[in-house]
Amino acid sequence: MSRLDRGRAAEADGDPSLPGEFVDLQTIYRGFYGNPDGPATAPHVQADVDYAADGNSNPPAGGPHWGSGPCGSDPTAPASSFCGPAPWGIYREPWAAETLVHNMEHAGFVIWYNTSDAVVVDELERLAEQRLNAGQTLVLAPYPGMEADHVAITSWSRIDKFPVEEFEGSRIEAFIDAHLCRFDPEDFCARVPSDTIDTFPLN
């Protein structure tokens, strides 16, 4: 099976034994990843995307996204309009969801939070730093478009979202371990340096 076929299979895999909830992108967007002859689940667009109107999760777990060029390191001043993906890392300012969906297309994870609970944010940053230092690809950023006092983690076609009172680091860890490189149709996992993420391709 080709990596593209594996990616499409992972995108469509609603196995309830896997952590998080399945988001059926193929039904939502009436197509599949990389469809050369019709609707697809991951087109690059240069317009705002209304994921809620599409029937996607909140925050989104895939779908159309921005990709006009790689983003700079400052979410408040991206390098180009409609940029994506964002550099892997930990942020205190939000990125546009359309940018971070591109990170998921590149086999990454996004940890989103909407809380002022410093204990939870500190724990999320500690966890994210450990994973980033291990060469794993993720973004941690606030997301004010989500319900207040919630945390979510997404990978392509999967989401686990919960109120902060249910937060446990092990829950995030289990999600990452289960979904690491499951959706990787562009073979980005093979490109991650073993000792750093600074040179990870951004296009």
Output the keywords.
single chain, 203 residues, alpha/beta, Glutaredoxin, six-stranded mixed sheet, 6 strands, 13% strand, disordered C terminus
Query: Any idea how many domains?
Result: 1
What is the residue-averaged pLDDT? 93
Percent in strands? 5-15%
Low-confidence stretches: 194-203
Query: Roughly how many Å apart are the termini?
Result: 25 Å
Specify the biggest β-sheet. 6 strands, mixed
Order of helices and strands: HEHHEHEHEEEH
Number of helices: 6
The CATH homologous superfamily corresponds to Glutaredoxin
- Write down the CATH topology: Glutaredoxin
CATH architecture: 3-Layer(aba) Sandwich
Choose one word for the global shape: globular
Structural class: alpha/beta
Structural overview:
This protein has 203 residues and is an alpha/beta fold. It starts with a helix and ends in a 24-residue tail after the last helix. It has a single domain (3-191), classed as Glutaredoxin (3-Layer(aba) Sandwich). It is globular, with a radius of gyration of 16 Å. The chain has a six-stranded mixed β-sheet with strand order 1-6-5-3-4-2, with helices on both faces. The protein has helices at 3-11, 25-28, 51-54, 97-105, 118-133, 169-179, and strands spanning 21-22, 89-90, 109-114, 138-142, 150-155, 158-163.
